[in-house]
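ok, trying the design again with the full structure, not the truncated one.
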């Protein structure tokens, strides 16, 4: 089976391809290799696919904007190789997780078939891979090592991945249930088996040192790094042991977190935070998402409160020398106002000035595939429009400006974009605003927007 990482959604120019580690795709490859499936890896951010080893091709869609990329990649590969190629797709937009009313939160079967036609299968559906490949009892994701996939990389490609920030699969799931979030949520965090993580990290470090590289930058997969004190402490000890066995090697680690989890850890298990910082964890992105309690309640984020957010930012910086990032998903239709948007901006500005916090603003999108709003009746016409015009999936990019599709009220949309761009202008901001596409864009306007968006890779 061939596994392909499609080119980044905003990498139109060959000189601006974005090399990053698609851990989900490699995990799928490792699980299949364990069942004696012959895997061939391709990454179109490094080079175009010029050969295939089988008639079954798998691709992982990191987010909604990758849907039109996948459509075009499938068309191109079928034209280039064989019209009867079979494709299997995975990724957050295709989740088959259901809400409490039994409605699928990702693309439903009708939407998937409309977009991809025959010979393309949703790998997020139970039993699809087993049926296509005639295998049984695929292992759980958290039980597998990725070494079998790393071994398929040439030294040159291995260095390409590990010379930039790479993703590190540490855990999945989050016990919180934020409304706009499309990730795996509402369930206790689950760590990978420590033996597998230990094997992978040692392999990576050993190979990098053989290639004369003594540092690695990693983005941890945890949705809330500080959620599970015991497992996090074990992870920190693991990194420290690896560093002790490899003198001179350094890790630079970062991840997402909830301020409530940090406060709990600081009060009950400060030694875990000390060890984590010593291991190389130097940057944490806190989900602030506004500053009004009414908004946190609306988006099902009642775990937030202003005092804990302030304390977490201050202690993170002053006590543990970890840089706090402010993830500010704001502009929620139906609850945000001009005053709440201004207050969110003012708070972010104050934290930047006082603690050198890093602003990371994003525009709230109510019906991203995978989140709770996806099934609400208010958004079905907009969802239908996007399905019928796949290029519009870029409107659901969190870094995209509010559009007529996501924020139909003209006055509110303009306010959201005003404060979003103001926050993007704060010192240290890492978010690059994306221009949303419109069905009424002329060819010239669309081409201009694509040029403007090209090379804008989110951190």
């Amino acid at each position: 089976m061939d596994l392909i990482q499609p080119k980044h959604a905003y990498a139109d120019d060959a000189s601006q391809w974005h090399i990053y580690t698609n851990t989900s795709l490699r995990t799928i490859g490792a699980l299949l290799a364990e069942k004696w499936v012959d895997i061939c890896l391709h990454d179109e951010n490094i080079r175009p696919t010029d050969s295939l080893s089988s008639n079954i091709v798998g691709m992982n869609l990191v987010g909604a904007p990758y849907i039109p990329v996948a459509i075009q990649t499938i068309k191109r590969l079928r034209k280039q190789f064989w019209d009867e190629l079979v494709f299997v797709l995975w990724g957050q937009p295709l989740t088959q997780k259901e809400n409490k009313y039994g409605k699928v939160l990702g693309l439903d079967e009708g939407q998937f078939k409309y977009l991809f036609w025959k010979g393309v299968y949703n790998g997020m559906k139970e039993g699809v891979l087993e049926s296509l490949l005639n295998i049984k009892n695929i292992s759980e994701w958290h039980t597998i090592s990725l070494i079998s996939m790393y071994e398929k990389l040439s030294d040159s490609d291995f260095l390409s991945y590990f010379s930039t920030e790479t993703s590190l699969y540490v855990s999945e799931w989050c016990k919180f249930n934020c409304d706009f979030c499309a990730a795996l949520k509402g369930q206790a965090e689950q760590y990978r088996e420590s033996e597998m993580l230990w094997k992978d990290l040692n392999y990576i470090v050993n190979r990098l040192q053989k290639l004369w590289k003594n540092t690695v930058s990693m983005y941890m997969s945890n949705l809330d790094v500080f959620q599970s004190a015991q497992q996090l402490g074990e992870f920190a000890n693991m990194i420290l042991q690896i560093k002790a066995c490899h003198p001179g090697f350094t890790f630079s680690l970062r991840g997402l977190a909830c301020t409530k989890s940090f406060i709990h850890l600081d009060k009950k298990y400060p030694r875990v935070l000390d060890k984590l910082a010593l291991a190389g964890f130097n940057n944490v992105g806190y989900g602030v998402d506004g500053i009004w309690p009414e908004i946190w309640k609306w988006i099902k984020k009642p775990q937030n409160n202003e005092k804990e957010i302030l304390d977490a930012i201050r202690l993170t910086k002053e006590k543990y020398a970890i840089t706090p990032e402010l993830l500010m998903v704001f502009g929620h239709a139906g609850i945000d106002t001009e005053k709440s948007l201004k207050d969110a901006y003012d708070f972010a500005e104050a934290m930047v000035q006082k603690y050198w916090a890093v602003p990371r603003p994003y525009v709230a999108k109510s019906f991203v595939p995978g989140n709770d709003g996806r099934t609400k009746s208010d958004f079905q016409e907009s969802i239908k429009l996007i399905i019928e015009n796949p290029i519009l999936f870029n409107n659901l990019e969190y870094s995209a400006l509010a559009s007529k599709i996501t924020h139909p009220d003209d006055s509110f949309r303009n306010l959201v974009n005003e404060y979003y761009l103001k926050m993007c202008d704060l010192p240290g901001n890492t978010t690059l605003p994306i221009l949303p596409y419109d069905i009424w864009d002329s060819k010239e306007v669309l081409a201009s927007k694509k040029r403007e968006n090209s090379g804008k890779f989110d951190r």
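Keeping the full-length input from now on. The longest helix spans residues 338-355.
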